[in-house]
Amino acid sequence: MNNFFKLNNGINIPSIGFGTWQTPDGETAINAIKAAIESGYRHIDAAAVYKNEVGVGEGIKGCGIPREELFVTSKLWNTERGYESTLKAFEQTLNDLQLDYLDLYLIHWPANAQQFSNWKDLNSETWRAMEKLQSEGKIRSIGTSNFLPHHLEALLEKATITPAVNQIEYHPGFTQDECVAFCKKNNIVVQGWSPLGRGEVLDNATLITIANKYNKSVAQICIRWALQNEILPLPKSITPHRIKENFEVFDFEISSDDMTTINQLKNIGESGLNPDTVTF
Ligand SMILES: NC(=O)c1ccc[n+]([C@@H]2O[C@H](COP(=O)([O-])OP(=O)(O)OC[C@H]3O[C@@H](n4cnc5c(N)ncnc54)[C@H](OP(=O)(O)O)[C@@H]3O)[C@@H](O)[C@H]2O)c1
């Protein structure tokens, strides 16, 4: 099992990212980042809308690891779509994180047809700003989040740079096979958000049986399963022993029979957030 995935621009991305959604800003965020770095994570998944980039940035600054050994992602929130507002929002994020570049910047959600008659143009204008920021060296890679194949197809019509990453909901019981296949075909790395289904898949009887067999926790099974499916998981925790546990997944392998069993689980832990119908 490789500790990195390779992006379509040749850059290596650490194969597990540390999630920060719902992590309170301030001491909690600082301590979570420090615990993650101590446990071995080198990849942090932030976003402006999580309202904790100041604390996340403090944690990064104080962690004792050189900046170039870390991989830091943030995301452009929905209210900031468009060319000029993307440039501005990016500067705010960089400021909050106290960084002078990002490793990866994502469009958090696509503008969708239900909300915007000009959704294609809006996404393309946002993307044009992201391409400019990458060309200026302020971001090493750019990507999307929650884009379904039709959103990506429309974006690719005008894009100069193909997204390096698409970050989507992915956990046992919710595998978005069509979107994953589209991304893999187009050499776009898929990152899995809510890899533990926000904790909701952890009491599933099938997963518990499999976890017991490997002497691992269900959380570790979910993370390892994503990796073996070549999906980059982004587990979140603010609890030090869980942060550590979620990174201890490189010393075992799930058999192909058990992979098939997990792949076939249906309808557990789904958020219900459909990129075509969300109203935020
Ligand atoms: N792009 C997007 O639209 C999007 C959407 C959602 C999430 N994300 C990203 O993906 C990350 C992960 O998703 P998520 O935060 O929704 O959920 P998640 O990682 O699936 O689950 C997090 C929940 O599980 C608990 N947990 C973590 N490790 C555990 C363990 N070993 N045993 C038992 N419980 C455990 C956490 O509790 P404690 O923290 O209390 O330990 C928390 O309640 C986010 O933080 C964010 O970075 C992106």
Write structural notes for this entry.
With 280 residues, this protein is an alpha/beta fold. It has a single domain, classed as NADP-dependent oxidoreductase domain (TIM Barrel). Helix content is 39%, strand content 15%. The protein is built from ten helices and ten strands. An eight-stranded parallel sheet has the order 3-4-5-6-7-8-9-10. Strands 1-2 form a two-stranded antiparallel ribbon. Strand 4, helix 2 and strand 5 form a beta-alpha-beta unit. The longest helix has 17 residues. The radius of gyration is 18 Å and the shape is globular. The model has no long low-confidence stretch (mean pLDDT 98). The chain binds NADP nicotinamide-adenine-dinucleotide phosphate. The site of NADP nicotinamide-adenine-dinucleotide phosphate has 28 residues, from helix 9.
